[in-house]
Amino acid sequence: MSGSAALGAILEKISSHDKDYRYMGTSDLLAELSKDSFRATPEVERKVTEVVLKQLDDQSADVSSLAVKCIPPLVKGASEKTTETVIDALCAKLAMTAKSDAQRRDAGVIGLKSLVAELGDSHPASGAVVASLAPKLVAFFAGKSTDEPDAAVVGDVLDILRAAATSHGRAMAPHHAATRDALLAYLKSDGRVAKKRAAQCLAALAASFTDAAAAATVDDVLGELSACTASAGSRGGAGDERALWAWLLGALARCANAGLEFSKKIAGATPAVAELCERARGEEEEPTREACLQALEAFAARCPGECAVHLARVQCLASDLTSYDPNCDDDDDDDDDLGDSAADAGDDAADEDMDDDEYGDEEYSDDEDDSSWKIRRAAVKTVAAVARASPATLEQNFAKIASKMLGRLRREREESVKLDVFEALEDIVRTCAGHGESLEAAARACAPRIARAATARLLDRTSGAKVKTAALRLTRETAAALPGSLESSLQTLVTALATVLAPNGGPAAGGSALKVEALALAGLVFSTRGGQPTDPAFVDSLAPHIFAAAGDKYYKVAAEALRACRALVPVVERDARWHAAALAEAALSRVGATDQDQEVKDAAISCAGTCAARLGDVMGADLKRCIGLLLDRLKNEITRLAAVKAIGAVAKSELRLDMGDYAATAATALAGFLRKTNRPLRLACLAALEALVSKHSGSLSDAEVTVAVVEAAELVTDGDLAIAGSALSVLESVLESTAFPNAAAAVCEKALPAALTLVRSALMQSHALHALTSFFAALVAANLPAVKADDLLARLMDGGSGSDGAGGSETMKAEGEAAAVAGRTAAVCVAAVCAGVNDAKHTSATAAALVKQLGDPASLAEKDLLALFCLGELGKAADLSNVAGIEAALLGALDAPGEELKSAASVALGGVATGGRGKFLPMILSHVANESHKHQYSLFLSLREVIRNGGVDQAAEDASRTLEILFANAGSEEEGVRNVVAECLGLLAVGDASSLAPALAEKVSSGDARTRATSVLAMKYAALALKADDSSNAVAVFAQVLPKFVGSIPLRDEDRDVRRAAVQTLSAAAHAAPALARPILADALPAVFEQTVIDESGVRVVDLGPFKHTVDDGLELRKAAFECCDTLLDACLPADSLANAGESISGCASGYVAALVTGLGDHYDVKMVSHALLAKLATRPGASAVLLQRLKELVDPMGKTLTAKLKSDAVKQEIDRNEDLVRSCLRAVDACEAHLAGASNDPAFAEFIAKTVNGERTAAKYAAIKAEAKAADKN
């Protein structure tokens, strides 16, 4: 409000006798109240309130409606006294029942509804509004009967109360008990109106109940349901009451927060509701049956773990009721194939059969009031909910359920039920595809029947557009989830798709929406063909319709058709090349158009590129046209990325297409785009340039390639190693071609210095490293005048900056691990250069120079790290046995000062022994067998390197000697030796699993504790060495013996080191091969949870004189146990809430949460893992109930973490660690607040958020954490 004068003018205008003035004045007042800057003194606030309330009674409806709109902004900035005044006035109007007061009453109803709706839950006035409003609303129906004239009042009151409960449930917490009791009493009373609204209101209110309150409500409702059931024979209207109470149970399950106690109560209610549903007979009981089925669906969806023992009964009951139809005499739903054979015949025959397929006059008794379809729909939804919740239950009854559902598709006359059946079948197919081989096999066997049922609906003239679309969606889901399962049904499927896509079949079949779904299915069918041959008749049937759809005016149809065209390209290439011209025209006609949707543009460009790449040899003149259009699309930034990818596909084509002058134009444009900051565009440009240079060198000039080299050289940095690797691949292609001498010279001048600098990066990764070594090998193999192999080796081993070699050298400045990474990278590059020279004498000479450089072992320093690494890499690729002094030099280097040098010497000796196994491996074994050897640990590292590189032939004598030494040292007193021995044994076990794995398992059950721990750790390294797609004998052997390494016995071993090894092995197995770990979780997981508890016997205090130090010997074990729990959650436990206790999160949530209760208050390292684990559990539906039940126990240790104070003399490292810990804790809190439904209703959690998290110390940090999480979700 700008001032009292302006407000006075507004109030004067409102008091006018002219309704137009009053309208304008009220409008101006609304504008003032809506301003964020509006502030009023108590006196002005009182006057404004009186005026607004007076205007509610204005004779003009327009003025009155504007006054209603003024109420929310007025209350938002008003005092509690004003809020009370406004609510009293509105409630008074709400109670008016006379016909003459209808307008006033409407104003009260609308005013209260708008106030509740517009006042957010977080608004400061929310609590005051609810505190004043809730008791007044409850008073309207509490404790008195409602006469007929008051029915409308009670209905509006319940609607307002429901809106308040939905929007301000937490603020209503002080009134929960009174409101709940009043609603329950109202529902129990006879003769009441609007009971359904009261039940809806109670369900909405339950969303903000505590777990105990929600559980108590379930008890009360279940008690009333039981009472109604018991008195059903002598009490009028009992059927309606039972339906109401059953519906309310389902609504509570859907709305209330599924805490542990609540979930148990729901599980207890399941048998009673199922029994009531079974006992309900006759048409008069149909509402009760429907309500029971809806409740059972909610039970299965919200509390699957607790209801698991009842789900089989629920599923059988629901599947039987899917065929409930008292108006139909035919109840043979199981024979779903009957009549569907028409789909295999022509369209006319199919139509004739379908006309007679539905219910005939002799079978169906028409009843306009028939509502049996509601029961069938509820039953279908319940079957789907149980299938999602419990795959095990689905597997037991799969045959029956599939037959019932498919039969229902043929007989069902209600469209909405058919749609729900299709949706249920989609859920069943998805569930079968992801939960076990047996269930998937059953679904695959049923897939042809699904296809027949779906195609029959497509060919049925009586089916509506929605039904046909659902049929296509089900077929597409089946084809995607179960690849290859529809192979036997392709003929009927193609016939049905052709019918839908035919020009004269579109409108009758549903128009554009149905076409989009049909095209998506056609594209999926063709894209999943793989290398299998396709019947040309199928292509002939569908291709013309797909090509025609590509020109459709509706962008969704055109885009989907173009994607289907792209999927069709490989099929046309292999089996129907006569369609190539039409396919190309369909794509090119859309590429050439400019005024079209972006989705269509991208799909057309992608299709055109694929078409040219695979069918270019038969496209003729269209090939040049295609490339020209793609180059033209490079000019538009919107279509540029898609066009670059398409040009890259054409350039990479195995057909070696003649791109002519277009190749040079493309290379110039692509080189220019490398300056753009768009990362995907850069990567696509580099890939296309590599293909152009390597496969179309004859069409490119030296100058054009030189420009590309200059631009690519700028990208060879460690700022983005993926781009750097792609840039190096382009440069390698230039070097491999002899057609670009100037460009090759530019590589030496511009790219070589950058590559030498990249060698020194501590960020090097495998992809970029491979590209870098290939680049150096190609550089030497090119035999350029500017680059000599010896000079390049010198620059690599010199550690120079790589400028030009004339400015001197610069020693490596990186320290520790960074220096080691840079040294290993340089060594790999040195080996690549020697491989590029391809001269054994040159390699030996290089190795001799390196040996000479090492000199006296006593004088070795950090500068010699690179020489050791180089010797190791050279030794892997060549036999260096004849290099003089190499053995003495490497053994002597083991005495070098510093662990880095010793480690490098060990690796070098192992690398040399790989290539020179005949000389060096026996020497290593002879030394390492001597337990008193001072370098035994280092020599074991060398042996590990030999084994890792495949230098031990398991069929040779050395293999048995190696195993003998390893087993002899498995119980070594030195932990470092035992760890290396374990890794060696694990690596060997992968190659000889059948004999070595059982031998290791035998050691686990016998021998001393050290040997047991080493044997268990060996399986850890064996599991990590397995490849993700490994199908060797090792996987089968490991699956058999793994329980002996990570079962409950080793996990409960008396020795702490054995238990830690078992936990680490289980974690490694779950990470590397989840299928190995899943079968043993039921046995192993409880034992892992036991290791998360603090063992007081392992905590000791060491007296250091001036102070005492506490040592926790079990910390590493607990940390490993929590990390194992985290890995198992990610890799082995399904993300959805399943009912199988051994394999689902709902079955082991209690153990996880119990571990978190202690872990959140443990050591720093354990807390960090616990925070991450809590954040993940909060997103899992199966864990929500247990988390809510023990939320207070989780909040307490987190509160201590956030409020802990550091000592005044804390160093920077301690401050940084504490900051990391606080941020980690806040991330866990944010995950709970965002994903754990019902957490905000827990008093302890709400207080923790308000006072601690949003307190002065952490409020800003928490806001930043929430912003980060929001940004991550968007990405």
From TrEMBL:
Gene Ontology BP annotations: SCF complex assembly
Statement: the UniProt record of this protein carries the keyword Repeat: yes
Protein name (database record): TATA-binding protein interacting (TIP20) domain-containing protein
Region named Disordered: 327-371
Entry keyword Nucleus: no
Record keywords: Repeat, Ubl conjugation pathway
Acidic residues bias locations: 327-370
Domain TATA-binding protein interacting (TIP20): 1076-1251
The organism of origin for this protein: Micromonas commoda (strain RCC299 / NOUM17 / CCMP2709) (Picoplanktonic green alga)
Similarity comment text for this entry: Belongs to the CAND family.
Domain of life where this protein originates: Eukaryota
